[in-house]
Fold Acetyl-coenzyme A synthetase.
Amino acid sequence: MSADHEIENLLQETRHFAPEAEFVAQAIAKPELYEQAKADRLGFWAEQAKKLHWHKPFTQVLDWSNAPFAKWFHDGELNISYNCLDRHVLAGNGDRVAIHFEGEPGDSRAITYAELTDQVKRAANVLLDLGVREGDRVAIYMPMIPEAVVAMQAVARIGAVHSVVFGGFSADSLTTRIDDAQAKLVITTDGGYRKGRALALKPAVDEALSGGKCPSVQNVLVYRRTNQDVNWVEGRDLDWTEALAAASPEHEAKGFNAEHPLFILYTSGTTGKPKGILHTTGGYLTQTTYTHKNVFDLHPEKDVYWCTADVGWITGHSYVVYGPLSNGATQVIYEGTPETPDWGRWWSIVEKYKVSILYTAPTAIRSFMKLGSSIPKQHDLSSIRVLGSVGEPINPEAWMWYRDVIGSGKAPIVDTWWQTETGAIMISPLPGITTLKPGSAQHALPGIEIKILDEAGTELGLEHAGLLVITEPWPSMLRGIWGDPDRYKETYWSRFEGKYFAGDGAKFDEEGNIWLLGRVDDVMNVSGHRLSTAEIESALVSHPFVAEAAVVGAKDETTGQAVVAFVILRQSQLEAAGSDADVSKILRDHVAKEIGPIAKPRQIMVVAELPKTRSGKIMRRLLRDVAEDRPIGDVTTLTDTSVMDIISGKIAGGAND
Ligand code: WTA
């Protein structure tokens, strides 16, 4: 394949950090893991699965005869809630704290495994009383509070299927999702606390169900978090606390087939309506449990783990609700935003609970970096021993800041690549084994097979960027798109015969480390050279002026596409940076120097904010509209829709070149 069909990637990273001897000595994951998985991949996964409690043991590992529809451990039976709760209580760990809950207003609760089990059993009985049965769908629309965990676990416990809809989504999104899944029950709250205010949730549910829009819904179960006034529909709405108090605390978890559906989670595709990604039970729990333990080096008897993701996203499902509880971890759940009451909130939580493992997203890290090190430095963060990153490439500068400032200059960072569709982590360093390289997710985990192909499907060598594929089925893989098997095949399995196409660009560097280069639809073609948005962003952020950057390709008469960059400046650098025109020149030269003149942005827009989805992903599609001077597309999933007005106003004010 010729060079002009490759994604250009010219950024070089030379720093290395080997694990410290002390860490290696106590590490959960040992190098043998790689050898075992290599020698017998399916046997390796069977070993991991056997660490769970099976009501009926499996004898078959994988059935791939109906590819791409996989069955894992499919003649076995298990109960996911039993694995996450009862088995820890039975093992004598009922008094261990499962959840340290920190409400945004400052209220806190410690919930032990015994207490959580009691709550989930009661909730399971409430659901049964409401007529929810195996296979029925339940929509959950709640803030980040322990009851959301209880709700998910209770639905799973009785073999129903949850569809969690992120609390920041609108009534319309809720209607679409409830309707697509034909949910029988909605579990919600009156509201929740965010940015110092009691926000309402129940009105969105009422609106979503109004006018007979969702006839499948029979009841709404409401937990009162804020005690604000709510509209109440007699006969339909039930009070969570009253119902649980009246319910029996006895509930025996029965085993379900390993392929019993567990949840649907909607994720936006590049176009079209949201896809209901379907996950099932045995394989999903096997891989979330295994990755949570090995990637984060979890020692459940002493670690305090905190994943900042909301349960409305896949990270909250796999690394708040299922992986950690299955491993008997003690975890922190925080309701609110990082800036309430001030930007020190996260670090005061780390200090208060002595958090030892922190898992968050690069966008959060860059926000903190933008404000400077002095805020985290006011807190004792010495308990932190492992840091995790997920959701987008973490650029080396943010990686270094995360390690130095949050990780006391020594905590290993696990940059974990995965997707809603993969269900669990697929590519990541293992902290007691891997010599870390800032910015790279590094290696496929033991048991996972990754390749990088060119567009014709030919495997690429080192230093050639192409398309990331997964070549062998894995236990926590999606089993389909709810109600649309053809879309499943078309989206993920049609590009390369027999291989899962992840939609991401990637390369192996000269040492065999995997670098994720962003979604392939975020790839630009400038004068026949493909450039990764992620790489140019990384170059921009490596300049001391820049806190955050987003790059898009805009149509250009001469070059096909041209690079347009949107940057947020670090507050401490505003004076030094000078006028926007000065900044633009300096940064264009900087990119030219870091990557090469081909990558030099045509325009650089200095902005105060970037449009982001509620999960923190930059919406490049909208930026592309601005850069190409088109009307702005649908912005309903933006955190702050006014951001776009500001940006388009700015660009309309003239290019700064
Ligand atoms: C991106 C989130 C680079 C990637 C768990 C993927 C990443 C998409 C990383 C899935 C990472 C996630 N490095 N890119 N460590 N982690 N991504 O479904 O483009 O919300 O395809 O799942 O996020 O996003 P999703």
Confidence is low (pLDDT under 50) at residues 1-6, 652-657. Residues 267, 314-315, 390-393, 415-420, 441, 502-504, 516, 519, 615 surround WTA (CB under 6 Å). Residues 523-652 form a domain with the GMP Synthetase; Chain A, domain 3 fold (CATH 3.30.300.30).
